[in-house]
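A protein record in our archive is deliberately plain, so that people and models can read it alike. The tokens are whole numbers drawn from a learned vocabulary of local backbone shapes. For reference, a complete record is included directly beneath this paragraph.
>
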Amino acid sequence: MKKPALVLTFDVGTTGCKTCLYRIGDTLEQVDACLEEYPLYMTPDGGVEQKVDDWWDAVCKSTRMLLDRTGVPPDRIAGMAFCSQMQGSVLVDREGNPLHNPMIYMDSRSTRQIERALYGGLIRIGPFNARKALYALHIAGGLAGTPKDPLWKYHWVKDNRPELFALADKWLDVKDILVFRCTGRHGQTLDSAHLTFVYDTRPGKLGWHEGLCRRFGVNLEHLPPVVKATDIVGPLTREPADQLGLVAGIPVFGGGGDTTLTSIGAGCVRRYDTHMYIGTSGWVVANLDKRKVDVGNFIASILGAIPGLYNYVAEMETSGACLKWVRDHLAMDEIGIYLKDQATEDREAEQLELYELLNQAVSETPPGAGGVIFTPWLHGNRSPREDTHARGMFFNLGLNTGKRMLIRAVLEGVALHKRWMLEAIERRIPRQEKVRLVGGGAKSEVWCQIMADVTGRRIETVENAQDVGTLGAAVVCGVGLGIIPDFRTAADFIRVSGRYEPREEYKSIYDRHFDVFRSLYEGNKKLFRKLNAPT
């Protein structure tokens, strides 16, 4: 190993920016972490936006706070990388200024755009025009099959903000615009390029594809240069360095999206390694060495940060957000009484204590939640049944149903959906008896045990499971700097902190719940559409 180095990494998520400082040497150690939150902006027509300045202010504030707290001299930082939410969309002008608020992955306004461009035709695959779908699947290895995909957000701006679209120079994802702020240079990583679905992902043919751009109405001049995760996009320039409290010249690496870098931070760096993530959103991801797509279950492989591997991804819109919903709307009447007697100015500590109370309530409630089943589709369903109209519900309430049963049912409902996605993924890969669980949800021991019982797999957690995205970005820096030999070596740096075995005595309960859970969507999808489709 070379001399230890300090790197800064940033996880720009749905609710805030987590900035972390890592020391890379014979081990990979988190020195400190700092979270700075920012808001979501909802629009009546299904839009979900954020502001670039909110992201940047959070990045700057958390970085300065971290440096002040640790006392690390700014000139000791050897590299920087961003991990961010994916499938955002923002058009920028020639100076790199955003022309509109970024439309993040939850934004579902682009229904008319996808229907006009991709639906219909004499021959169809599901609702999709067969010719267009097969062409995209062949070239891009996937299809922009939902209104939330960046391709249709691009067209939404074109249709609804033509005066802004006329000023567009580049079309970027979340991370890309922050990298530009740091360096003054454009560099989109392979994972984000792939998710435009106008990028040729065939081995040996990587690049923006003129035919796909022509067919789906994308201006090739709007597409930025594509880089690898470990490529240096540029040095940190003086103005952003001053804003961050750093020194100019620090190399800024390409980094990656949260899905791809979380896989690395989870220690999943080899073929078929599989992890599940519980953050605000959630997913199940397995590593493959070949492109695969499952149109029926809305699962596709995307180019990952590790050369030669793809991430085979099944997503859900709301995962940990369901527990936050419980905290805010189901449990706060009881917890609020507690808070009046235990007031604190430490908001982060207060939130941790709130979740500890919820976990305690769940641990004291028998598995199966008294027969109550919760569907975690609070902002629609994505995989394995893409449906923006689906919503959450409690099923099978009775006179004996108590609030603790409802809270436990929410955690079990998220686990049931994870099982649904995991089993869909395993139609294309061997069954995995061991699965890593990461994200904020992995900090809950009771949720980890529920995940093991519901899925029937051994669940493993890693240290600082809520920060694995920044850990993956730190690995990117380490490989890019030549401190870590390669990504597969990085698995040795990531320590397992917990193991949870499935308990046989609860298998029949959860198998029965799982059968009902899947039927709840099929039985109610028409009703969801009747209630929630635009009129």
Notes: The first helix runs from residue 52 to 70.
